[in-house]
Design goal:
Layout lengths: L14 E2 L13 E10 H10 L2 E2 L24 H12 L7 E5 L5 E5 L1 H12 L1 E2 L2 E2 L19 H9 L1 E11 L5 H9 L1 E2 L2 E2 L2 H8 L3 H9 L3 H7 L7 H15 L7 H11 L8 H18 L11 E2 H17 L7 H9 L3 H8 L5 H15 L4
Parallel strand pairs: 1-11, 3-5, 4-8
Antiparallel strand pairs: 2-8, 4-5, 6-7, 9-10
Helix pairs in contact: 1-3, 5-6, 7-11, 8-11, 9-10, 9-12, 11-12, 12-15, 13-15, 14-15
Length: about 375
């Protein structure tokens, strides 16, 4: 268990125009959902046996499992954990959980991981490598572990019921888009998950792993800044690839465009890992060296529209022919930022189809002049 289990997440880099939470994806689904009531001891047993799984970001794939890695690490404080256990001991109702049924029969936790892992830790007797003895509770339970609870209290806890809503997408059968939308709309701890946090789960595969690897690139880290706990840096990398390869098919909303690209290239079916890696590394290194660390920032925050267009424009120039005067990239960049038509496309309605087409075109033309 990491020592910083209960530490707050580091501050995020500001990224303009990357919040797709409010975009609506127009579609229809056939979904099977049903309710099930589980006793607490039964939930803990299923967690221990792997029949119910909390899919963490670093979780390995399992054959037959469609989605992995969409839950953040455990973030509840000790008082939150203690009060949750106390609520069950008092016989109070607690919020239900959402589970996704996979083809292999496993149930993945869509919402409720903090509650379930608190139970697992309490029954196991350890939390953060320390004994899980209740503290922030009524005096009669202070200092009690699961094993030292009175028999009646332990029985009441074991028999407490937690309601689960279990969902399975029947149609369309080739993706998990409805699960994406359900998960997106669930509020966990007051913080909505960001689109890329959900994508790494529902479209987990070689592309997702590659994005994570490229996020460590030195030039990219210099350009982006601090790592994003909400995976916004990974989203910008995905956005670059999607724009570079499929800009001609772009249709808003941006969220659905990126979902489609990631789903269709989940295991790098259309382009190899080496090709993507070389493309990304060459592009970010050229921008970092020639333009500088503020290449994506018109002001203090990163501008996502600037980032996608600059990266695509530079990448297209590098692919066209060898560059003999890399310092020309800075000249072309400065001229681009004086282009009124380009500036119009990065200030508002940046996901509009015409604005996306126009800014990529203006950037490509600007960097085409680099010798």
């Amino acid at each position: 268990m990491p020592n910083d289990l209960f530490q707050p997440l580091p501050p995020e880099e500001d990224v303009e125009d990357l919040d797709e939470v409010n975009e609506v994806i127009p579609t229809a689904y056939t979904i099977t959902s049903y309710g099930a009531d589980y006793p607490v001891d039964g939930l803990v047993k299923r967690l221990e046996q792997g029949d119910i799984v909390v899919p963490l970001f670093n979780m390995p794939e399992v054959p037959g499992q469609q989605a992995v890695g969409f839950q953040r690490e455990f973030v509840w404080t000790r008082p939150q954990c203690d009060r949750f256990i106390e609520s069950l001991l008092l016989g109070l109702p607690v919020p239900g959980i959402f589970l996704v049924k996979e083809p292999n029969g496993r149930l993945l936790v869509l919402d409720g991981q903090q509650r379930l892992r608190t139970l697992q830790y309490f029954y196991g007797g350890l939390i953060q490598a320390k004994e899980f003895a209740l503290d922030n509770v009524q005096d009669k339970w202070k200092g009690r572990t699961y094993k030292t609870l009175e028999v009646d209290d332990r029985r009441r806890l074991d028999d407490s019921i937690i309601h689960a809503t279990i969902v399975r997408q029947d149609e369309p059968s080739d993706d998990l888009s409805s699960i994406y939308m359900i998960f997106e709309r669930l509020n966990s701890g007051g913080t909505f998950l960001q689109p890329q946090e959900i994508r790494v789960a529902l479209y987990h595969g070689k592309l997702a792993s590659l994005l994570s690897s490229l996020n460590e690139n030195e030039s990219w880290r210099a350009l982006y800044g601090k790592k994003s706990a909400r995976l916004k840096d990974l989203e910008l990398i995905l956005r670059f690839f999607a724009m570079y390869y499929q800009a001609k098919t772009y249709k808003r909303p941006m969220k659905e465009f990126l979902n489609r690209y990631m789903a269709s290239n989940i295991n790098l079916q259309s382009v190899s890992e080496d090709t993507l890696r070389q493309l990304f590394m060459a592009t970010t290194e050229a921008i970092h060296r020639a333009i500088g660390v503020r290449a994506f920032r018109l002001k203090a925050a990163i501008n996502a529209a600037v980032a996608d267009s600059i990266m695509v424009g530079v990448a297209r120039r590098l692919a066209a022919a060898p560059v003999t005067n890399p310092e020309d990239f800075k000249t072309a960049y400065d001229e681009l930022l004086q282009d009124a038509e380009y500036l119009k496309t990065i200030g508002r309605s940046t996901a509009d189809e015409e604005f996306v087409r126009l800014r990529l075109e203006r950037s490509t033309n600007a960097f085409a002049k680099v010798r």
